[in-house]
Amino acid sequence: MPRLAALLVLALAACALWDGDEPAAAPTDMQGWRFTSGKRPSRAEYAAVVAACEHGAVGRTQGKPLDMCLADLGLRRE
After folding, report:
1. Rounded to two decimals, what is the model's pTM?
2. In the chain, what percentage of residues exceed pLDDT 70?
């Protein structure tokens, strides 16, 4: 039984590697953006906020341009 479980996990991992859906890369124009606290966002933070805007995760920002959505979520241009 443990061998079957290990084989199943390896098969699922192999399928995940061949999955054609790759996450969208964050826009590279993160320069010039800061949080309202003045701190610059890391690439991961910026990518998460952009993804939330693009996928409509926050209801009040749906249908707005990316710059306005980022501003609503706490990022400001320098």
Report:
1. 0.56
2. 73
- Structural domain total, the chain: 1
Question: Six-digit token pair at 70?
Answer: 């980022």
Q: Is 21 inside a domain boundary?
A: no
Give the HSE-up count for residue 78: Cα atoms under 13 Å, Cβ half-sphere. Answer: 10
Asked if residue 78 is part of any domain, the answer here is yes
SS3 19: coil
Residue given tokens 């341009």 in the structure block: 65
Q: Is residue 10 part of a domain?
A: no
Summarize pLDDT for 63-73 with one digit per residue, the tens.
778 888 888 88
Residue type at position 42: S
Q: Identify the CA nearest to 65 among candidates 39, 27, 10.
A: 27
